[in-house]
Amino acid sequence: MKGKKHDKDKPKYGLIPPFALRGVAEVLTFGAEKYEPDNWIHVPNSKTRYFDAAQRHIWSWKEGEQSDKETGKNHLLHAICCLMFLYEHDIKYSIAE
Predict the structure, then answer these.
(1) How far apart are CA 23 and CA 7, in angstroms?
(2) In terms of Cα–Cα distance, which of 91, 18, 87 is closest to 54?
(3) The dihedral formed by the CA atoms of 10, 15, 19 and 21, expressed in degrees to the nearest 10
(4) Spatial separation of the C-alpha atoms in residues 52 and 30, rounded to whole Å
(5) Which of the listed residues 34, 37, 51, 96 has the most CB atoms within 10 Å of its CB?
(6) Residue 96 and residue 45: Cα distance in Å, rounded?
(7) What secondary structure letter does DSSP report for 93?
(8) Which DSSP state fits 33?
(9) CA angle (94 as vertex; 93, 95 as ends), nearest 5
């Protein structure tokens, strides 16, 4: 008898690039230790502030600065975190600004 698992139409989390996933987790861990876990949920004017932060990280990377000076982590990882916060606010928290 063969085992069955009905997961054909379910998300394939194994497709997430592992280095990016680990790096995002490291940036989020740094933030949780610096502030507190899930602090990003409560930041006032979060949509504006995280959009601006994502842009700063992207432009720092584009201008040749590989890593954030404070964390030592790639600017793109920080930008990904900011974009994730924006997405969560957009679909879950719907904070009006």
Answers:
(1) 28
(2) 87
(3) -20
(4) 20
(5) 51
(6) 8
(7) I
(8) H
(9) 95
**How far apart are alpha carbons 15 and 37 in whole angstroms?**
26
Residue 35 backbone zone (phi > 0: left; psi -120 to 50: alpha; other: beta): alpha
The pair of structure tokens assigned to 91 is: 């679909």
Task: Check if the beta carbon of residue 89 is closer than 8 Å to that of residue 46.
Answer: yes
Q: What's the token pair of residue 63?
A: 């201008």
The torsion angles phi and psi of 79, rounded to 5 degrees, stand at -65, -40
pTM: 0.88
Question: Using the 8-state DSSP alphabet, how is residue 44 labeled?
Answer: T
